[in-house]
Amino acid sequence: MKPVKVGICGLGTVGSGTFNVLKRNAEEIARRAGRGIEVAQIAQRRSNPKCDTGTTPITSDVFALVDNPDIDIIVELIGGYTVARELVMRAIENGKHVVTANKALIAVHGNEIFAKAREKGVIVAFEASVAGGIPVIKALREGLAANRINWVAGIINGTGNFILTEMREKGRAFEDVLKEAQALGYAEADPTFDVEGIDAAHKLTILASIAFGIPLQFDKAYTEGIAQLTTADVGYAEALGYRIKHLGVARSTAQGIELRVHPTLIPADRLIANVNGVMNAVMVNGDAAGSTLFYGAGAGMEPTASAVVADLVDVVRAMTSDPENRVPHLAFQPDALSDHPVLPIEACESAYYLRIQAKDHPGVLAQVASILSERGINIESIMQKEAEEHDGLVPMILLTHRVLEQHISGAIEALEALSDVIGPVVRIRVEHLN
Question: Residues in the active site (predicted)?
């Protein structure tokens, strides 16, 4: 049988890794796919001296690749929203299947892309867009298809996880670790997408859509970064038996879908709380399977290339199948997607860690407890430290039971209005992931 011809757009880290894996494991991949997979052409803006492409034809025009009638599958690895979207839509219009690692593209434009792909009867595969080499999209779409998914929680940005690990293990400040992450290549010169949760929100949007059968709705995801976290909060969390992780949480409730990325206290004995460095992990809770944990490298040349090539194998296997009987892009049949709303953060429910800086006066704790009690907020535990030498303020750390965000926001406003409370109250959400 003739080999399937592939065009790779972008020969950076992931593109070169994909080319190398396809070349090195060609025989094994052909055995799995049922026919050979051959890179027929590469489009790149800059040469990559780390990748020996041999005699493979190379062009600087990505659209020439998409318009090449000999190519069956386009692998989009250039990233971004604009050129990548035009490239993918044109490939689909030309009747070509697409494999992409572009989480931003799928999260923001996926609904449009999948609609066009259905119209043209082609496949758009995107396993590599979430958590690198961890096959969590396939697990949600296929392995857990019997389940009603209750929630998904993930450490899905390695840069943020590296920073928080260094802060906890070595007591280093956020700014210091960020500089090292940039020097090591974990963080970009502009680290906003990583440290503010935007990258994780792209990925969580995709996971939530597949888990709950809802359209992609990145614009409704709540994001909160980690730049404001201090080593003091990391240490207090540890003393209380928790670890702070930059967690993405998607939960199905009767009222709607929670879709949020923020710093989160997790009990230290949970497996996911012990995922350190640049590693990723995703927990999925289903009504039949219970909780499952997917762990591995969330980025990098060959881990991500592993997912890209796995998608290529899947596409090759499915190329001759009836389009109506393929696994749907978002796990549910297009006409069966739910209109269950994504909730604003004020309507989400969580437990909370609160740190209050107060003057060392009698009765302050009683005032704090009264404000929380008036709003139906139950305190699980309190830790009060000695007055700090530099300012004489007493740190009070409270853990609450689960409560609506709007109620805790009202309580914090009232706490900050107390004359004995100095500065803003620190709020970090708590998830037990039972």
Answer: 203
Q: Is 16 annotated as a binding residue?
A: yes
138, 203, 220, 245: the catalytic one is 203
- Looking at the domain 348-430, which fold is it? Alpha-Beta Plaits (3.30.70)
What is the pLDDT, as a whole number, of residue 109? 97
Is 14 a known ligand-binding residue?
Answer: yes
- Yes or no: say if 226 and 160 are a contact pair by the CB < 8 Å rule: yes
The CATH architecture that domain 138-297 belongs to is 2-Layer Sandwich (3.30)
Tens digit of each residue's pLDDT (9 = 90 or more) over 128-169: 999 999 999 999 999 999 999 999 999 999 999 999 999 999
The answer to whether 9 is annotated as binding is yes
* H or E stretch at 258: strand 257-267
Residue 59, annotated ligand binder?
no
Domain 4-133+301-336 has CATH 3.40.190.10: no
Longest dimension (CA), the chain: 83
β-bridge partners, 379: 400
Residue 254, C-beta contacts closer than 8 angstroms, at least 6 positions apart: none
User: Residue 389: its pLDDT value, please?
Assistant: 67
Would you say 12 is a known binding-site residue?
yes
Asked whether the whole model's pTM tops 0.90, one would answer: yes
- pLDDT recorded at residue 308: 97
pLDDT score at 48: 87
DSSP state of 274: G
Neighbours of 398 (CB within 10 A): 22
What are the boundaries of each domain within the chain?
Answer: 4-133+301-336, 138-297, 348-430
